Amino acid sequence: MKLAILLARNSTTNHQAHTKQEYQLASLGNVIVHFSVSMTMRDVIGDFKTDMLMSEMQDFTEKLNKWGLKSPRPWNEFAGILKKPKNKQELEERLQTNFMLYKANYILLLAGIMSWSVIISPFTMGVLFVCAGVFALLLGWPQPLEIFGRLLTPKEKTMIAASFTFFLLLITGAMVKLIWSFSLGVSLIVAHMSFRPRCSGHRKGIIDDANLSQSPTKIVEDIESPNNEDSGLNSYHSEIAQLRATAHSMSRDGRD
Question: Which family is this protein grouped under (predicted)?
Answer without folding.
Answer: Belongs to the PRA1 family.
